[in-house]
Design goal:
The chain is mainly alpha-helical and 614 residues long. The chain has 32 helices and no strands.
């Protein structure tokens, strides 16, 4: 048995050697051929690829040999190669494209065109054959023949809706946007369910286009088709989609209202969609109009509650961006809040409305009175006492109540609330925020060493925003600790900072001026300029704020507040001074010069609206 076993193993080994040696030789030859090809030693590669192709007739070896011949300009050899393969692979019409490319390389365009035309003439009813041939033409840069291939297939199969996406893409590459749109909209007419696919394809093309021609062509097509078919829901929805793509929210609202008027069964869905998108993009005017459109439909409308709250939120966000608001506007908004709470009630569904109203009552300048501060505190306390409020919302509202107490000068009560939230949420972002607020309170109280130790811990926070704020305040403290440890200037600045928070704008300005009058140079000067700009913005003195922020950008461009000042300057010019060009320049500078800034994403969003014509 041992002898037989050894004998069997020997026989198997011999058989394996006999059968595997050609395979190993082929693999070795292919590897050497590939090596020569990669090193552009095409003649040596040809010597190896020729026998491999002759033996196997594989597509891969054909392609490699074709490439080697063309790279060495062996035109007769490559012609023979393709012609022989055509005889053996008659259904592979891409070979005619290969042969045509040889004639193009030789400068014989007439023969090339003849081969290309022959390929299309031989096209049958096989859709895979069609797709392969069209792709071969595309790869050769002949979009005209690729288009003709698809059109011939339609003719052969008597189906005008085949290869719509492919043809539309080809027409787009050729700049024939009219035919491109015809393809998409003819398909949409036949099959509205393809709207999503059409929008996706158009969106990709619009994003890749470097000119406005495609967008202009799409707009013309939509306008023309809507005029001819004003009740076509698909066209109206496409126009709405296009308007949103272009970030033309006002026009999008017009389209949404048209859809709403002609198709009431949709229940205002598209108007609500525009309202939310416009609000997220800070187009307050359009969002306001959209919400009012829905509110006007009455209390029984399914979007009434959401629109009522959304309308108030837009008003709140318009005012709470750090700019001055006239008393009449504030009074009207607060009256709306009172009416809404009377109508909708104080419950878990109106919590955000109550929080926003509390903020308006407490911090909106001209309306800040002892009575309004108490009303603001009562609203927050009502939320805290709600039985079904989430723990996360409870913690956030407690922090807001702490902020309100700090604003009112109740520092120790504010600290107590911050400490409660920090203790109950040690591993959460809201706990880190509470810790930051307590550290800032210590800074206000001139306990700088303790504040800095807490801030340095928070610099490792998982919240990028908290970590950034902690870093800024920590650096402010460390950069301005005077050698004699009296911290006179820093104490004045901290006091002014608290006064600014508490809305004591004139007193804050006086203290900031005091610092600049005491010394001709101090590390706090850029912080002082930014704080003064904030004061002037809240006072409605926007021209002065612009000058102050511009000075920071020009003279303190490498300091930690440079990106803050640049973003403030951009928004100020966009929203209050009406200088869109300067705003755009500021946003661009922020994106290019301060790529790690927390404001970069918002700046990009603003720029995308500017470049799309908004």
């Amino acid at each position: 048995m041992p002898f037989r076993s050894r004998y069997s193993k020997t026989i198997i080994a011999l058989l394996l050697a006999i059968y595997c040696s050609p395979l190993l030789a082929q693999q070795s030859g292919e590897q050497m051929a590939s090596y020569y090809y990669q090193n552009k030693e095409y003649d040596k590669a040809i010597e190896l690829y020729e026998p491999l192709y002759n033996k196997t007739q594989s597509q891969f070896y054909y392609q490699m040999l074709y490439s080697c011949y063309t790279n060495t300009m062996q035109w007769k050899e490559v012609e023979k190669l393709v012609e022989r393969r055509i005889k053996k692979q008659q259904r592979d019409l891409t070979l005619y494209v290969d042969l045509g490319k040889v004639f193009v390389a030789k400068g014989d365009k007439k023969k090339a065109e003849k081969q290309f035309a022959a390929a299309i003439d031989k096209l049958g009813r096989d859709t895979k054959q069609t797709a392969d041939l069209a792709m071969a033409f595309e790869n050769a840069g002949r979009y005209d023949y690729a288009t003709a291939t698809y059109l011939k297939a339609r003719e052969n199969l008597q189906n005008d809706y085949l290869f719509v996406m492919e043809l539309a893409t080809l027409y787009g590459k050729a700049g024939n946007y009219e035919k491109m749109m015809d393809e998409y909209f003819n398909l949409l007419d036949k099959s509205p369910g393809n709207m999503g696919s059409i929008q996706l394809a158009l969106s990709r093309s619009l994003n890749e286009s470097s000119s406005t021609q495609l967008a202009d062509g799409l707009r013309r097509t939509l306008v023309s088709r809507i005029r001819q078919n004003p009740d076509n829901r698909s066209y109206l929805e496409m126009m709405l989609w296009f308007s949103l793509q272009q970030k033309d929210f006002d026009f999008a609202l017009t389209q949404a209202q048209a859809v709403d008027a002609r198709f009431p069964d949709l229940g205002g869905e598209q108007v609500m969609r525009v309202a939310k998108i416009a609000q997220n993009n800070e187009d307050w005017a359009t969002a306001d109009k959209a919400y009012r459109h829905l509110v006007a439909k009455g209390k029984e409308h399914p979007y009434y509650f959401e629109s009522r709250v959304g309308l108030l939120d837009v008003g709140y966000r318009r005012i709470s961006q750090g700019y001055a608001a006239d008393g009449k506007t504030l009074a009207a908004l607060m009256a709306d809040y009172d009416a809404a709470l009377d109508e909708l009630g104080k419950n878990e569904h109106t919590v955000q409305l109550m929080r926003n109203y509390s903020h308006l009552l407490a911090y909106s300048g001209t309306t800040t009175t002892t009575e309004n501060l108490q009303r603001a505190a009562d609203l927050l306390q009502d939320i805290i006492e709600m039985p079904r409020i989430s723990s996360a919302t409870l913690a956030e509202v407690k922090l807001e109540l702490g902020d309100l107490l700090l604003f009112a000068g109740e520092i120790w009560d504010a600290s107590l609330l911050y400490s409660q939230v920090e203790k109950s949420n040690k591993n959460d972002i809201v706990g880190a925020m509470a810790k930051f607020k307590n550290a800032k309170l210590s800074y206000y109280n001139n306990d700088f060493q303790w504040a800095k130790s807490q801030l340095d811990v928070l610099r490792a926070s998982t919240s990028k925003l908290i970590a950034n704020d902690a870093m800024q305040l920590s650096l402010l403290i460390s950069d301005n600790m005077e050698e004699d440890s009296t911290y006179d200037m820093l104490e004045l600045y901290a006091a002014a900072d608290l006064m600014l928070y508490q809305g004591k704008l004139d007193s804050a300005w006086t203290l900031l001026d005091d610092i600049t009058h005491r010394t001709l140079d101090h590390p706090l000067f850029d912080e002082i300029l930014v704080q003064k700009a904030r004061i002037r913005m809240r006072q409605g003195r926007y021209g002065e704020a612009d000058t102050l922020l511009q000075f920071v950008v020009d003279h303190y461009g490498s300091d930690i507040l440079a990106d803050d000042a640049l973003f403030m300057l951009a928004e100020l010019n966009e929203q209050q001074l009406g200088n869109a060009e300067k705003a755009k320049q500021c946003y661009e500078k922020l994106v290019i010069d301060y790529p790690s800034s927390l404001f970069v994403d918002r700046a990009r969003k603003k720029l995308s609206r500017t470049t799309s014509g908004r």
